[in-house]
Amino acid sequence: MSTELNGRVALVAGGTRGASRAIAVELGRCGATVYVTGRSSGARRSEVDRPETIEGTVELIEKAGGSGIALRVDHLEPREVRELADRIDREQGRLDILIDGIWGGDRHLEWGKPVWEHSLEKSLRMIRLGIDAHIITSHHLLPLVIRRPGGLVVDMTDGTAEHNAKFREGTSLSYYLAKAAAHHLALAQADELREHGCTAVAVTPGWLRSEAMLEAFGVTEESWRDAVAGRPDFVISESPAFVGRAVAALAADPERARFSGQTLSSGQLAKVYGFTDTDGSAPDAWRYLEAGRPADATGYR
After folding, report:
1. CB atoms < 10 A from the CB of 113, how many?
2. Residues 89, 66, 146, CA angle at the centre, nearest 5°?
3. Which label site among 34, 45, 50, 111 has the fewest CB atoms less than 10 Å from its CB?
4. Are 212 and 106 in contact (CB under 8 A)?
């Protein structure tokens, strides 16, 4: 266990699974006290309907030597988010790191359908999850972040700013808007937080081997290479721990304000901070995805 973040208080909103779960674990491993919120708990699943829970994330934090608190919160409900902020204020009096990883909209995604054919109900739900929930969270939690200089806000997204500068054929319009909004959230938050000495960025993993992705390929994190034979470009994928290490390294950097307002990728931050994925590699999926080149792990795996 590292001690780089000892004494820091973090909230990982939407920390039930995937990248956000790994970020929560790595922040805890580095010494932060981590609040983990989400809609999937041991008592009730969210609409995502997967087995991962916020309590499971806290168990992983504790296994890594850290301290975590699981709280079931629906970040689309302002009252619940306000109560979350009040609780953190009572218990800690501060919030140093806010990770906004709220999503849970994959089940609403209909790839390849133009907006007039895509379910309107599902389209609007993705917008609510990807934009409204983030604004509600910012409204209630940023007053705690700005209480002390040095706070960090991370809006999780899917794709670099360069990648999302274009709308790509086959992408759902609402998914695109929900994810691309993180770039603009980071820009706006960086400007609003500057006078308080705080930093805001957007962060994207590469091709993430999330729990759902591994399940879709019929592999585990230990056996993921078995999927490469049928899908060669899966070779550029990365474990959730990679982006978790990226955000932990950023949070521990006293000069992180130089990145404020930017959208950063896990591969990009690995070059800055020198960390690796769990297998010792340094994946950088976006250098292929942005250029439209065939996936090739030469040079990093």
Report:
1. 15
2. 30
3. 111
4. yes
Q: What is the pLDDT of residues 40-51, one digit of tens each?
A: 988 888 888 899
- How do the domains of the chain map onto residue ranges? 9-211+240-281
Query: How do residues 120-160 score in pLDDT, each as one tens digit?
Result: 999 999 999 999 999 999 999 999 999 999 999 999 999 99
What is the CATH class of 9-211+240-281? alpha beta
Query: What's phi and psi for 45, nearest 5 deg?
Result: -90, 155
CA-to-CA separations, 47 to 39, 51, 106, 172, in angstroms, rounded = 9, 11, 10, 19
**Amino acid symbol at 92:** Q
